Amino acid sequence: AQSVAQPEDQVNVAEGNPLTVKCTYSVSGNPYLFWYVQYPNRGLQFLLKYITGDNLVKGSYGFEAEFNKSQTSFHLKKPSALVSDSALYFCAVRDFARDDKIIFGKGTRLHILP
Amino acid sequence: DTGVSQNPRHKITKRGQNVTFRCDPISEHNRLYWYRQTLGQGPEFLTYFQNEAQLEKSRLLSDRFSAERPKGSFSTLEIQRTEQGDSAMYLCASSAGLLQETQYFGPGTRLLVL
Questions:
Q1: Is the distance from CB of A18 to CB of A85 less than 8 angstroms?
Q2: Which of B97 and A83 is assigned the larger pLDDT?
Q3: What whole-number distance in Å separates Cα of residue A22 and Cα of residue A41?
Q4: Ranges of chain B with pLDDT below 50
Q5: Which of A4, B2, B36, B92 could form a disulfide with A105 if both were Cys (CB 3.0 to 4.6 A apart)?
Q6: Nearest by CB to A43, which of B44, B55, B105?
């Protein structure tokens, strides 16, 4: 069965510091991995995805994520955090060989402190 | 705005009433998905359509829930005899192409059952 784990409910980072939001996954086949962000009372906005190729994926708003197959991880990173990055972040996985639904983690709330 | 739209954005109803939500996908997207998100959780897959065909339904989709996409464009999600446990954010997403990987989400419909 597919699953996603986001081990941190909340991450606090000072503005200007680098940030990391952790994600590990489990799928039986090849993983398609995603990060989405959700602002209050809003839907999910797509940030980036990993399908194949370079393990370092760059996305919107200066975010990037690193795919690590041996550790089954897909951590979200940004070199310098902004207060406006404060939001709820979801990691998601899809096993394309099995079906089309996306399995989401529980989310990590990111607080950027001014 | 050519993104995914959902109506209504908010719905308050009394237990036992029926409710219907509408989703308009991004134009020409042939896949449409419904998810449900409860407080503190990530979105959970409910069902999805390829054009007008409903291809998969989650076990979460009880017989009180029905979804349609009659002309392969917009979709409706109906909940009959609502229960307090149905209170949640209902999210719609769409994607395009045969190897579509990215699902784009609408703003959601927040349902409160009293």
A1: no
A2: A83
A3: 24
A4: none
A5: A4
A6: B105
Q: Which of B42, B56, B107 sits opposite A90 (nearest CB)?
A: B42
CB proximity under 8 Å: B 67-86 to A: none
Nearest residue of A to residue B90, measured between CA atoms: A43
Q: How far is CA A82 from the centre of its chain?
A: 17
Q: What share of chain B is helix, strand, coil (3-state, %, to 5)?
A: 5, 50, 50
First-to-last C-alpha distance (Å) of chain B: 33
Residue from A51, A41, A52, A33 nearest A90 by CA: A33
d(CA B99, CA B101): 6
Residues of A in contact with B108 (CB under 8 A): 42-43
Other CB atoms within a 10 A radius of the CB of residue A72 amount to 16
